């Protein structure tokens, strides 16, 4: 039996039309309040301006404090616009160095058929008595950005 390709227009609403991924295992350190790229970045070109893009981020992190607090912001961006955000905070009265994972998920409406870039950045927003490094992909753990075009 021959297989027949169904065009994007023939797919029911909510179908996944394409998937693009970005993966990194590179440690990135940021001990400042400046925004730093994590190495996660991917382009997707929607086939219709009415389609949506589901963006999923998984980001291993590390941060620490010596009797104080640190807050980190993790930003999912479309171009230069923040469309999703997560944060981590530690406020302790002892020396700690913690590792964890941040997840961000956004169903975006880019309203375009042009190539669109999504990326992930992070920065410290509060810091007193930092201990160690604030970083993503500690120990070369794997971070992922998955973009899925979803039909309207």
Brief summary of the model shown:
With 152 residues, the chain is an all-beta fold. Helices cover 0% and strands 61% of the residues. Strands 1, 2, 4, 7, 9 and 10 form a 6-stranded antiparallel sheet that branches.
Task: Describe the structure in your own words.
- The protein is built from no helices and ten strands.
- A hairpin with a 2-residue loop joins strand 5 (69-78) and strand 6 (81-91).
- It is elongated and about 60 Å long.
- With 152 residues, it is mostly beta strands.
- The mean pLDDT is 87.
- Helix content is 0%, strand content 61%.
Determine Rg (CA atoms, Å): 18 Å
Question: Span from first to last CA?
Answer: 30 Å
* Rough outline: elongated
Strand percentage:
over 45%
Number of helical segments? 0
Question: Biggest sheet, in brief?
Answer: 6 strands, antiparallel
Secondary structure tally: strands: 10
Which residues form runs of ≥5 with pLDDT under 50? none
